[in-house]
Amino acid sequence: MEWKENRRLLRGSCSLGAEEEPMVKRASLVLLILPMVLLGMVTWIAAQQDDIVIRKEVQLVQLNVAVTDRKGNYIAGLNPSDFVISEDGIAERVATFEEGNEAPRMVADAGQEESDPKQEEIPAPKLLEPAPVPSAGEGPQLGALNGASVFILFDTSNYMYRRSGFVFAQDSMSDFVRSLDGPSRVAFYSYNDNLSREALLTSERSEVLRGIRTAVNGANSALYNAMLLTLRDASKVAGKKVLVVFTNGPDNSSTVSPEEVAELAQSVGIPVYMISTQEAKLDPISSVVFTRMSANTGGEAYFAKTWNDENHAFSAIKDDLAHLYLLSYYPEPNPNRNWRKITVKLIGKNEGKYMVRTRSGYRPIPERSAFDTPPEE
């Protein structure tokens, strides 16, 4: 009897109660499933990593290039093979080529016309175009048009209203807008203390002419502030674009410097054409700044004494737009992340024969991944 009782007690001490047994089963099940879950998570993470793509921005450098003889006559009919571009002394390969209002050509296609047939054909990189600035009644289809996008910035400060020729200035700008060739698009902005976007980029000349006639005056002149904002708008437009500034005096209200404006214009590849009156030329600082800024960006500066001089200046700008070459390239590897010097020369039979005018350099846009937040304006 004693042996049977001991065996009963031992069995009882080794057996589980009714409440404890399910807990053990659940723990065993968890231990069995956990490795499978962990394995599944590892597989999912690996799959997600395979799907992650880090995109780097590749900056396409565009150059508006004017080629003239010693007398200032434009040279037409040049080919991509006539140009040599270098950046910090590094030779660059032209990606696209455009003359005047012609459609842009990929250099690989253009090169077949004059290159050695034994030369291996290298596919040209795809040209990525930023979205154009929206305009009234028009949308992104503007990017499909050839021709220049012309941003006109007009001084409506008290400097301009001191002149009796304010109406003549409006007439000169209106004639300039009417004279631009078909596909060109125009935006008209005015400035005093602030910038006013009187007519957004459009191919409808009537909208621009209405903006010219309805511009109103203000007190001070924030020229460089207005130029900076206009350049930011223009930089969002694909293709050839220029900034034409009509001003009558120095800046007395801006919070940015002319050096900042000039660097932005060069970095985004927008030539600046300055038309100022004789009053502006009398100010030595403004005279030097206007001349230097236009030269460094590939544009030109004009100092008009009379209404006829203003007309001649606008006519000269129109001729420039009609004869500009637009070349683009993707920079070769270059460790310099600061200012890069650009040199454009003619080679072959045209070497040293003509004058070449374009921007002097640019500061590259910093690379960022697709996860970075774009900088706020």
Give a structural overview:
- The chain is α/β, with parallel strands linked by helices and 377 residues long.
- The chain folds into two domains: 62-115 and 325-362, no CATH class; 149-323, Rossmann fold (3-Layer(aba) Sandwich).
- 37% of the residues lie in helices and 21% in strands.
- It has eleven helices and 15 strands.
- The strands form three sheets. A six-stranded mixed sheet has the order 8-7-6-9-10-11, with helices on both faces. A five-stranded antiparallel sheet has the order 5-4-12-1-14. A four-stranded antiparallel sheet has the order 3-2-13-15.
- Strand 7 and strand 8 (195-202) form a beta hairpin.
Number of domains: 2
> How does the major sheet shape up?
6 strands, mixed
**CATH architecture classification name of the largest domain:** 3-Layer(aba) Sandwich
CATH superfamily of the largest domain: von Willebrand factor, type A domain
The N- and C-terminal alpha carbons lie at a distance of: 95 Å
Q: Unreliable segments (pLDDT under 50, ≥5 consecutive)?
A: 12-16, 49-57, 109-145, 368-377
According to CATH, the fold-level topology of the largest domain is Rossmann fold
Q: Indicate the structural class.
A: alpha/beta
Give the overall shape, derived from the CA principal axes.
globular
